[in-house]
Structure formats: structure tokens, C-alpha cells
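User: For a reading group we're discussing how well predicted structures match intuition. Take Iron-only hydrogenase maturation protein HydE. Before you show the prediction, I'll give you the sequence so everyone sees exactly what went in.
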Amino acid sequence: MNNDNQKVIIVCGTTTEMLKADSIIRDNHIEVDLVPTPSQYGSICSTSIALEEVNKITAERILEKIKIKYNIYPYRVRKLLGLMESLKKAKLSTAFQVIMNKIEMGHELTKDDIVVLLNTEEPKEIETLYSVADRLRKEIVGDIVEIRGAIEFSNYCKKSCNYCGIRKGCDLPHRYRMDEDEIMEAVHQLVEMGIRTVILQSGEDDYYDTEMLCGLLKKIKKVTKMGITLSIGERSRFDYLLLREAGANNFLLKIETTNRKIFESIHPDNDYDQRIQCAKWLKELGYVNGSGNMIGLPGQKIEDIAEDILYFKEMGIHMIGIGPFIPAPGTPYEDLPTGSVEMTLKAIAVTRIVCKNVFLPATTALASIDPDGQRKALEVGANTIMLISTPEKYRTSYQLYKNKNMIDIESALEAVKNSNRKLPKYLKLPNKEGIQ
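Assistant: Thanks. Here is the predicted 3D structure of Iron-only hydrogenase maturation protein HydE, as C-alpha cells, for the group to look at:
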């Protein structure tokens, strides 16, 4: 779709109606794109249909025939009015000021703009970058930090990713698979805390076939009504469809890097094009689509990180996990250096500026190399924390990298408090006093 043309946004009442509208509009040869709903028109986790304004009347006629609930809005840019005025006395480079002016006016940033922001080492410019990202976070998604719980239900994996501590062939002390009763017990513990979304994560383990997973999802939905995020790797489009119909709302499938050569070097038995195809399928099927990247991969350049951020924007990703590379014992990369905390924070900040109405986790990986990492991430644009809710007897066996921080509710509360953010009202915790 030509970004220079005026666009409109179609917001439907439900995901089912959105997918139906998207399909029939495409069938009428109108070019559309599925995008995270702009914050002024809908929630952070919803998807809308973007199309050029010249096709608005035709689209309306099509939608009236199928009788679904919808609204059409202008695709307004989000401006940061007063930004340049507030920076008058700041000593910023000309190139940095030009980009700040683009952000104030709501103009899209180019790859070159993103590279400038990521490259800056001037303390005042870094401070300004973080401040702008935090202001956008506050205006777009507010002060509430979403709390979610991850259950790592299997550390078996058929893939040999060079960076991963549960890769096939890695000499782990203990491989495990949780059965349905164990998973449900962990889910119920999250329900007791008031948490509304569970993340079911594993290696790429074919033991849990689609039929087994669908049965589990249906049971979780029926018993708890929770939102469900899956992070189980690459599957077929039909599998993704069945899992969606069984109750999966969200899917996290990280790209890790959009540099094809680096992707192929770190994933010796994965196919880059297949990973992209899976992301497209998830988008088409109406998932709240998750992705992310690692900062500090071998051979990675600033330009690669910029391309990653543009990929998140162009793919319409809703949840973006950005964390530092951390070497894992027993892997081909075990002796490589850890990724930079500062570059990770800059990438989070720029992603908030570019992608806007998205979930940005304060990642476990960041907390694993910096005890204060989650607080820092929340202060530069992040708005989500994922608890490690795997049963204690399995936790140390799900080591994707060394010295993994087992984020619990106490550490999450501390990060929220220290960043002057707010907890969601749905949490049922006796020790959340002192935090709004």
C-alpha cells in the first residue's frame, strides 16, 4: 500500500467480523493491510483494516451487504505537540533535531532516521530519546503495566539453534514434559492471582500434536476464560487455524533477526522464508501477532536492528520482545559476548516511537544481565512484564541462556513501583499496597 496516499481505518466489532470484512474486501480487488488498531480507535491488542481513502465508498458498500458492525475513521498520524519547544535549550545535533521534528509532526521514520537514533552516544540525546519514547508510551497505552504468566511446559526441541540452551543435542541435566494436569494446576495458580493471560511456551516439540494442544486450549478456555498466548514455534497454516479456533488468542514467533545471512547462521535447520510465511499466516488468521529480536547477535550491525524495527511495523506486529543476546552453556555460541543493555534499551525506545500502539515487554533476558533492567525498560517505552510461572521443579531446566532471571511477582512489583507505573486492577495480590 502506498504510504503517500491518504488512508482510512476500518474497525470492526469482533476479530471474526474483521477477518470476514478483510476477506471480502480483498475478493473485490481492493488493496488492504491488517494493522494494530491506532490507540484512539481501539485497544492495544486489536487489529484493523487499513486501505486507501479513494476506496472508502466502495468498501462501505461491500460491508453494508454483509451486515457487520464497523466504523471507518481517518488514519490520523500521532503528533507530539510541543516537543521541539521543550528541546530548545538542549544541545542536540542537527540530524537528531531533524528526527525529533519528524516525530513531533507524526511523520514516519526512515531506516536512516532509526540508525541515527540507535547510533547516538551523546548522553543528552539518549536522555531525549528515552523521554520521547516514554511520553509516547504514556499517551498511547497509559501507565498500566500488564502482567502475564508464562508456563514453560516442555524443554524438548527438535531444532538446533546455535544460541539456545534447550537446542537439540544440548546436554541438559533434565528434559521434561508437563502433562495436562500439571499445566492446568499452574494455570489455576495464575487465575488465583487475577492474571488474565497465560503464555504457553515450549521448544518445538512434536510430542504435543495439534489435537493434544487443542484439547488443552479448549479446557483452559472453558474453565478459566483466560486469554491464551502460544509460543511453540513453526507449524502449518492449518495447525495455526485449528489452534486459533480452539482458543489461542495470541502467538509469539520471534524473527530474532531480519538479516537473512545472520538468521541462517544462527538457525542451521530453519528456513528464513518459512519463518516469514508463518508470521504472515498468523496475521491472516487474526492472531494478536508477536515477534521480537535479539540485540548483540554475532555479525549484527545497527542497520540490521533498524531493519528489524521496520519489519515489526510493516508486518503489523502487536507484541514485540526485544532482549540482549545471552550465551548459553553447551551451545556453539557459549563463549560469545553478551549483548549491550544500552543498545537494548535504545531499541525498545525506538520501537515504541515507530510502532506506537503495541505491547513491549520488559524482557526476562534484560533482567538476567541487569538486576534493574525491567525498571529501565519500563522507563523507555515498555509496558508489559512476563512472570516465570513454570512449576519450581522444572524452572531451572528451561535455561534458554545462562543465569536466567526467574521473574516472580515480587520482582515485577518492585519494577513497577520503582518506575512510577501502575498495576492492573485485575491483580489479586495482598502485597501490592503502595503501588497505584
